Automatic annotation (TrEMBL):
The keyword DNA-binding applies. This is Myb-related protein like. InterPro entries: Homeodomain-like_sf, Myb_dom, Plant_SW-associated_TFs, SANT/Myb. GO terms for molecular function: DNA binding. The keyword DNA-binding applies. One of its GO terms (cellular component) is nucleus. Keywords: DNA-binding, Nucleus, Repeat, Transcription, Transcription regulation. It is found in: Nucleus.
Length: 239
DNA sequence: AAGGCGCGCAACCGCATGCTA
DNA sequence: ATAGCATGCGGTTGCGCGCCT
């Protein structure tokens, strides 16, 4: 048997996600969860490979994600964790609620670049006392403090402890139901034979309408009501 | 004002791993 | 025991935007 690739090259869209695609994916996962990433795009009406959908959800659409700059605490924690864990970004991300491994990885690479440029400028400064440091260009001044104050001994305990005992963030692992949680009858039943086709439902449906497919196993409070999920959608789900 | 350059971010790719039939 | 599948993970790439010259 030939192993089928995740991303068959035929007809699958690549590149930046459009708002419409985001809506479809978000609406589908909100409603049904990520029961099978490979099949999901087909049912959600997306011309994407499952891998791409998963990545988009995990790194961008997932609720409770922090956006924006890393705080000093977070940066310090990343440095500290990287010392002990190395490039295990997912493990590092697990200690930083709301941050993704991709985000941390990207941030680290930027951090590394700055470190290197700083070292170069320092070594140049040692060779030439007339060095004014202007070669170490900080074009987007917001990160300058990091270079000046390397994050040594950051106050990480609070973060570590809170992340350990606080409720887990809404993530693919914790809040999207596991496949194991779904009974075989549901997975093999007629419900799954009918695609979700989010673009069929292009109107906003208030959540309290109770409109759910008869066999959806994902309607329970556990899935829909955890983590203040509704707020992210202005109390409305887009079908 | 315009082009070049660098950074940050999103996304892709390939490999690893665990599970299942 | 093994092959295939699904998913996770880390490395890498490409694009857009803002700053600099």
């Amino acid at each position: 048997m030939v192993r089928t690739r995740c991303c068959e090259k035929t007809g699958l869209k690549k590149g930046t996600w459009t708002p419409e695609e985001d809506l479809k994916l978000k609406a589908y996962i909100t409603r049904y969860g990520s029961w099978n990433w490979r099949q999901l795009p087909k049912f959600a009406g997306l011309s994407r490979c499952g891998k791409s959908c998963r990545l988009r959800w995990m790194n961008y659409l997932r609720p409770n994600l922090k956006r924006g700059n890393f705080s000093k605490d977070e940066e310090g924690l990343i440095v500290k964790l990287h010392e002990s864990l190395g490039n295990r970004w997912s493990a590092i991300a697990a200690q930083l609620p709301g941050r993704t491994d991709n985000e941390i990885k990207n941030h680290w690479h930027g951090y590394l670049k700055k470190q290197q440029s700083q070292q170069i400028s320092v070594s140049q400064g040692e060779k030439s006392s007339s060095n004014d440091g202007s070669k170490c260009k900080i074009t987007r001044g917001k990160k300058l403090e990091i270079e000046i104050n390397p994050p040594v001994n950051p106050p990480t305990h609070e973060i570590l402890e809170s992340s350990q005992f606080s409720p887990p963030p809404f993530s693919g692992e914790s809040s999207c139901f596991a496949e194991n949680d779904v009974s075989p009858e549901i997975l093999s039943g007629s419900f799954w034979t009918e695609p979700f086709l989010a673009d069929k439902y292009d109107t906003a449906v208030p959540l309290d309408t109770g409109f759910f497919p008869p066999y959806s196993p994902f309607v329970g409070e556990e899935f829909l009501c955890s983590s203040g999920f509704y707020d992210e959608f202005d109390n409305v789900l887009i079908w």
